[in-house]
Recover the amino acids of this structure.
């Protein structure tokens, strides 16, 4: 996460952000520029997006990528790497989503702690959220947090599994499709 650029109200941030060429997240009055992602991050994000889009055809939910915003309360707006919403109001909006069912974050060295801690604490405030998936391409780690009937999230570690369910949207992801193409790309940073 980058250093804060300026402090704005939510309304001012939204008006300002919709005019920007680059993306900025909003966290309790502070605005943070989103840094570029590495090739592998983009590849994994695209793989998850494509797999979910294929499985959601003909269903009520829709999958969206990293260029769309999710609002949490009146004090946070994030750009998840991938999210699925089944909410009628979300399916009619163009810019700001408030009720995702599933959120996926693809981790990088610089965002790993932030995605596990700060973002997850914020996302848990979303009543519609049922599953939060964290994919770490560097370590081939896949952690899924699923909200139980008691409202609490339970961790399911699917690292090394062949595939796993996203129960909230009746989909399955395989590790082969998530990490597809990574082995064929020679080293680099």
């Amino acid at each position: 996460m980058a250093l804060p650029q300026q402090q704005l109200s939510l309304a001012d941030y939204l008006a300002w952000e919709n005019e920007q060429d680059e993306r900025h997240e909003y966290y309790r009055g502070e605005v943070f520029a989103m840094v570029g992602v590495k090739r592998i991050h983009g590849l994994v994000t695209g793989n998850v997006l494509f797999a979910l889009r294929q499985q959601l055809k003909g269903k009520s939910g829709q999958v969206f990528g990293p260029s769309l915003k999710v609002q949490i309360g009146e004090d946070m707006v994030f750009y998840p790497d991938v999210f699925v919403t089944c909410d009628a109001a979300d399916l009619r909006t163009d810019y700001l989503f408030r009720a995702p069912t599933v959120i996926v974050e693809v981790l990088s060295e610089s965002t790993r702690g932030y995605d596990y801690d700060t973002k997850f604490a914020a996302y848990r405030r979303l009543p519609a959220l049922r599953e939060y998936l964290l994919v770490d391409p560097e370590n081939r780690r896949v952690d899924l947090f699923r909200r139980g009937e008691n409202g609490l999230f339970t961790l399911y570690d699917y690292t090394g599994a062949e595939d796993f369910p996203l129960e909230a949207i009746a989909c399955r992801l395989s590790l082969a499709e998530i990490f597809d193409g990574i082995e064929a790309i020679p080293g680099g940073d």
In short: Helices lie at 10-17, 39-56, 112-123, 175-178. The first strand starts at residue 4 and ends at 7.
